[in-house]
Structures
1.
Amino acid sequence: MLDLTPDEWIAIRLSLKIAIVATIVALPFGIAVAWVLARKNFWGKTLIDGVVHLPLVLPPVVTGYLLLISFGRRGLIGAFLADHFGIVFSFRWTGAALACGIMGFPLLVRPIRLAIEAIDRRLEDAAATLGANRIWVFLTITLPLALPGLIAGFVLCFAKALGEFGATITFVANIPGETQTISAAIYTFTQIPGGDAAAGRLVLVAIVIALAALVASEWLAQRAGLRFHGE
Amino acid sequence: MLAVDVEKRLGEFSIAVRFETAAGVTALFGPSGAGKTTLVNMIAGLVAPDRGRIMLADAVLFDSAQRIDVPAHRRRIGYVFQEGRLFPHLSVAGNLDYGRRMCGLAPDRAKMARIVDLLDLGHLTDRRTGKLSGGERQRVAVGRALLMRPRLLLLDEPLASLDAARKREILPYLERLRDEVGIPMVYVSHHAGELRRIATSVVRLDAGHVAAMGGRELLDAADADAV
């Protein structure tokens, strides 16, 4: 069976930690952006939409480089956060999570946006006549009805974050135990003689995690769907 | 009770309506396209009039001169929509309880039991709304609107989506509502027969204007010259 070395376990745990943190932190921002794009019309909306989708079409290395010059130690934002809040991204796992969250962001926003657009707004009007203010309408009607989209977006973002390579390695390098995720570890093993067995093991792990995420999302989406169709 | 004096332009169509209602059931009667739904949406606060004033008892709900426009969620006006608009992610009980929760009212088992009993919903409360029949959906919608303890109940063609048998099934419940609950109602319909059973006074609308106001005799007149 799989006989993973402690180093490989570290890479796996680190990957999971980075992907989970990236997705959970991105989620509220993703919901907010999806709601604004689905419901509001304003000047510059196309631009916002474009910027959100940019990580999907840019070479990941470019995104990583942009992160490096803005969130790095000497970057404008990076220096500010480090000096005032003690938050450091460069060459830390938090930086990997930032890169993964940004790379997964378009995949998170899109299904949520589509789900919100598909909601019958007359239900929201009905909730308003029953005494719900806008925040309660959002929390008790919009969000639960968009749940299948939320699940889809969460899983896609998580999967992207788990496999992210280009932006992460450009921004925070490939430091074992700190920023070396499964992808980066596989890459490293393929570069050293005799690393094939280790790379193969990690490849299997990556396949297992990806499949598990897909099955879990399918199961969750079905349960959410059933709730609407009354079983 | 309810005093409405509003104007609204919607493209080519314009509404200019002025009427007052007493307690009981006021029928808003007229052909489709007369502006009935837009008018009740204005009373509910879902559509803003261009000009005018809406009063419910002593409370100003809308007044363009004073720039008052109480938002829908603070009007405490129950609204039964043509298509029910039950929340698909909540059970029947969750739907019934929604208005009470949102209005911050204390749970009232006696009131809940009375409405559930009045509308015969006892066997439905644990169900999801997706599996209800058309008649059941409308009864739940009526119950949901009543349980927020509204100051006024709006019913917009509540029977329009039902077949004749279902209509006969629901009408007795609405009559009981009128006779036992005592909340003033505005009942929108283009169907004179239905209104003859339920209405206590009638406002006839035509092409966005009030054509006549009075008692149920207006329904008979309308039937006579109905096309």
Note: Residues 164-180 of chain B form the longest helix (17 residues).
2.
Amino acid sequence: MSKAMEAKNVEIRFGGQVVLQGFSLSLEPGEKALLTGPSGCGKSTVLRCFLGFVVPDAGSVSIEGAELTADTVWRLRQHVAYVGQEPDLGAGTAAQAVERPFHYRANAGLRRNLDRIPELFERFHLGQDLLHKDVGSLSGGEKQRIALVSAILLDRKIFLLDEVTSALDKVSKQAVADYFRERDDAAALIVAHDPEVFSFVRRVVELPCHTRTRDTA
Amino acid sequence: MNEIVDIGAWELAAAYLLLAFPFAIILWYRVPMLGETVTSLIRMTVQLLLVGLYLQVIFRLNILWLNAAWLVVMVVVADVSIVRSCGLRFRQIAWPVFLALTAGTAIPLTLFTGLILRRTNLLDAQYAIPIGGMILGNCLRADIVGIRTFYESIRPTEKAFLQSLAEGASLPEAIRPYVRKATQAALAPTVATMATIGLVSLPGMMTGVILGGASPATAIKYQIAIMISIFSGTAITVALGIRLTTRSSFTAYGTLDPTTFRDRPKK
């Protein structure tokens, strides 16, 4: 069975400055890993790399055994769910924000998943009334959880989570952690400044700044 | 109707006497645009005299390829102006904008001269050059507004744009909200003009046709046809301009290429 995601000797430079060098990582299907390290050492860049938003200057990135290239990226993105730290939900109501991805042709067959919105809202302590609110009036924590619900509804088996609990209270953080602990079928690469929330994750990948790093787990 | 009265050299010089009013206002209030105004006036005079001389030749010869060449020159000048105004890199954007301008001008112009005016020579100088110029001028304005709005709205919300890609959107799907916004911004002035035309002021073409000796009834028909042509041309050029520029302004991975913008350093 192919790995859920894999980076091999990835090197990334921005404006001549090396952000990542010799970075390697692989996750089995269903496996979870925490990506930690000092601020600005490239944790978000690693996540963006797995989406093709940052293209490595050297090395390779693969999703479910297929190398991420300009030709494959459009198909492979459909295997990955990404939730950012400060999600931009666009304009309109929360319901429109959650439903937006289902207007894309790639997700047309998943519209039935929208029936799960009430269940997921309840699970992440979001009031159903929020669905009718304008996204501009939502708090940072509400936006994070709504973005998470939207990502979950896309039925993907790989999650890239970038500080998804940073604006949440203790109870909501626990709800998010519990959800991913129960998802044995989904791999997740998690960036978190409060790793104790995800205490069930056994694997920790430390990302030092501008040094040659290799994950040996 | 009477033939149009020509303006002699001395009479034209007299028109410059009207400049006494704006210059008096500029000097009295010390508006800091005296030099700029003088330069603009000189440029206008020289440019129009030269174009007038050139057009005299073109109209007298009325050769198909020369008329087409003149239109191409106008498209190239408009193209350069758009790319500069939008703050985008010439190398990446000039060719797609040229194609968009050509289509936005040529399609309505061809229909105007062929279908509406029933001219056998579609590039007859008397019709093709003034009508083409009017359509192109509006395409230029619409492209500047449309293309600039598109890129200026996508840059600050790049996070939302990338999120849509992450959610499985194709590039056309991900840029659709921005295309919608840019198209609305570009077409809004023409739509507003159509709603008030004739009430606020007499439009340029109608005035020209009346001065040329035609009846107001004929002038109105020309004006209606040109407004529809302009609206059609601006819609074509903006939609094409945005679509074609995205081929070179986005990477193969669907992300916005930072080198597209003149003010952003290359990676």
Note: Chain B is about 75% helix and 0% strand.
3.
Amino acid sequence: MRDRFGLGWRPELAAGILAHLDRIDVVEVIAEDHFRDGRRALRALRTLAAQVPMLLHGVSLGLASTVAVDDARLDRMARLMAATDAEAWSEHLAFVRGGGIEIGHLAAPPRTAASVAGAAANIARATARVGSAPLLENIATLVAPPASTLDEAEWTGRILAASGAPLLLDLHNLYANAVNFGAEPLALLRRFPLQCVATVHLSGGRWITGPGGTRRLLDDHRHDVPDGVLTLLRALGEWAPQPLTVIIERDGRYPPMAHLLAELDAARQALAQGRLRKAA
Amino acid sequence: MSSPRLEALLARLYTDERALAQFLADPRGAALAAGLDTDDAAALAAADRDGLVMAARSFAAKRAGRSSQAR
């Protein structure tokens, strides 16, 4: 097994990805985009998976919650995994609904022993229902999760230890949380359970200002991967010797494919530099 | 701490501008009125107010973006 590099599969990028499969090792498909697909569309996805290794990425299960995950949602993921022959699936350490209200995106739950236990129970349920454990992704948050008693690295480490699931480490999310809440990014990275990392997300964002004047980095997937995130990837290459799959996510302001391929090359170079530092 | 009730209240604050404004005016009172125990209410009242507003605005933008998409 070797390090692999790929892109998030989006309709806007599909033609460019298919034209450059010689430079793209893997694609990551948003699972919810295909939960209602019929047979023909699923066959097309399976054909894609036959051409390039495919990962499914969930965004709506809400595994990091004290409320049990819905079996019907898990069944949709199980169906999609079976229909597409995807290599693996992932989901976020987030809650996305509460009291019957859909938040519409990924929210950080209070980081407590109770949410660790809730997440572990949900991950066990998801693993049994889907047939394989999800890769678990750390999320970015604009608000320090209220009522927390654990910090992010400890909370994440406890969930991974309790569930045995691998980590999808989003380096831009980690970077944003570090700069937004006063941590040094490399120091925060060092405290994550790096031996559990199997997959890495890279993306970009922009600075926004709150009504009280607070400035925070928003992870919007609409900007280039910043140098600070490549620095983290370099360090990860040094500190995590296992083979990694690195995915760049882009969800808007799509640049030409040549630009994304250059970003992939920069990621390859950063990880390789980290590997070399480890070897030296 | 951390409970379905706390998650439910956070979900409401992230999706309902009026509920968020009421909470910001009286955090502890709003939390107790939502059924949180005194520990959770105190913890939530100490939350980062600017961050709450920024998160709520970001979630609203995400929902608006999704509903405007054809797919």
Note: Residues 15 and 63 of chain B are 9 Å apart (CA to CA).
